[in-house]
Amino acid sequence: MAPSDAPSTRPDDLFPGRVSSLRDTDPELVERFEALATDEVRRASRLDPRTRLMVQLAALIACRGLGEYRGLVATALAAGVTPVEVREIVYHAVPYVGMGPVVDVLLLTNEVLTEHGVDLPLPGRSTTTPADRAAKGLAVQKEIVGGDVVDAMYANAPDDEAHVQRLLSANCFGDHYTRLGIDVPTRELLTFAMLVALGGCDPQVRGHVAANRNVGNGREVLVDVVTQLLPFIGYPRTLNGLRAVDDVAPAA
């Protein structure tokens, strides 16, 4: 698809209020990137704007694109993504990206939210306790991934690695997927976007293609998500993500 002579969305709509010296120092690069991100890629999407922005934020967290992330948080808030949803995207990244990189994202997020007049801390959204997180996590894990798959993961884990399966159920699913603020199908899209953006996670990407199908996110949605990540994560990770979709949910 050739770039349109009249982009469907102005660049300032992608990064509102953002002053970039790159437009002065690197105008050719910025012009081509903005045409790709705001016209060619976005024009092909059937995702609603809020979902598109949420998965892009998730991917930017995973690939540590803090500069672009800051600009896109402002865009997301203007488009109706709530402060709670922004926070939940960041929290959801912890089991996939790790607290090491995410702490910087969280500090930046709090800074942007404060600039937009949001009082912190935001209300809590946890639904589990230390006593029930493991049981509730295992239940939602089986709902998303499939009971037979989860049982096989437990059964096939060597004795000295079984604790990781228990941590996965209690922490990743019990502490995070059970939270309010973002529904499970959307959380699965966030997970998929993060894993694709991380790179080197091909088995996990394939697993979450299947999990997304289990919660109602089919091939069309997943291809759309990967396409919307392309300007921010590059072609190699985009193509690897599409390969995972083709492996698990081939075109009819």
TrEMBL record:
It comes from the Bacteria. One of its GO terms (molecular function) is peroxiredoxin activity. Residues 1-23 are annotated as: Disordered. Residues 27-110, 164-246 form the Carboxymuconolactone decarboxylase-like domain. InterPro entries: 4CMD/NDH-1_regulator, AhpD-like, CMD-like. Residues 10-23 have a biased composition (Basic and acidic residues). Gene3D superfamilies: AhpD-like (1.20.1290.10). PANTHER family: 4-CARBOXYMUCONOLACTONE DECARBOXYLASE FAMILY PROTEIN (PTHR33570), CARBOXYMUCONOLACTONE DECARBOXYLASE-LIKE DOMAIN-CONTAINING PROTEIN (PTHR33570:SF2). This is Carboxymuconolactone decarboxylase family protein. It comes from Oerskovia douganii.
